[in-house]
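Predict the holo structure. Ligand: NDP.
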Amino acid sequence: MQALLVHKGDKEHGTEYRTELSDVAETDLPEGSVTIAVEYSTLNYKDSLAITGASPVVRKSPMVPGIDFAGTVETSDDERYSAGDKVVLNGWGLGETHWGGLAQKARVRADWLVALPEAFTTQQAMAIGTAGYTAMLCVLALERGAVTPASGEVLVTGAAGGVGSVAVAILSKLGYTVVASTGRAEETDYLTALGASSVIDRAELSEPGRPLAKERWAGAVDAVGSHTLANVCAATKYRGTVAACGLAQGMDLPTTVMPFILRGVTLAGVDSVYCPLELRQEAWSRLASDLNAEALASMTTLIPLAAAITTAPEQLAGRVRGRVVVDVNAGQ
Ligand code: NDP
């Protein structure tokens, strides 16, 4: 089988961090009860960090990167799955501590799998990928915070990225008035076509701001962190909810307690990696009903396995639009 392999390098032996397309013996796959013929994986922000070594995502070396995949079960020692079943996997340490999806085969624990919803092909499931499933988790967090379309404008930051694009598409389909924040003015038409009512320059949010600002947002999906998240909280309306899932600007959060204690704002943390199975199933089933297939296609680029290596630095530089699907069987 072919796989991307990340070698973390070893200063003592003068070897450097590197990622390469490699031939790997199937007998080297890690332990697990289900072996899957992977069809598609994706390039999420975290995968790009792992492939380039820009952040310490990879915990073991060598590591097959790829935090998600969709494919067909080849063999299973677990009664919940049989050969031929279509499955999807997001997170659970894949590509970090357990060999991941940027490979033609994967072996994993059955507990980590979700049956592929009938509404999706394996390629569509990976067009959604972890970024899209996280966007849905963020939308569910807003709903649990009682943010409704009638509550007012909802902000999405990092809007032209993967999480952002899917969040814009879902929220607009659900009837929300979506404001998209982006650093790429040239993506205004793209974001409007996904359903954004208006587009703002992310520079309006990215600098240090006041503890409280004029109330504007009924809710927000934030993929960016840092001053942006602080400014979003400061401008969130009374009892609004902000779903925080990302750190594209930075992992810091230079805020004060003021939005929380004076306006009852909720900061809802969203984690996709160890999210419980019931919530994953809810998110995937809601994606089947609340994400428009045409919008999904418009935000997706398909690349072969080896191209993930060259696309990763582009993604970290913020030059990739929407979602990148990796056809692990193409271009061998
Ligand atoms: P992408 O690279 O596709 O999108 C990130 C977007 O953030 C960019 O497209 C850009 O949007 C914006 N951005 C980039 N750099 C900056 C900056 N310096 N300041 C402000 N905005 C910036 O990544 P994903 O959508 O895959 O992931 C987004 C974030 O969510 C990442 O931090 C990722 O780690 C996190 N994440 C977390 C998950 C979880 O479980 N909590 C799961 C999945 C993702 P634009 O050009 O529109 O400004």
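The chain has a mean pLDDT of 96. The chain has two domains: 2-116+299-327, 131-269.
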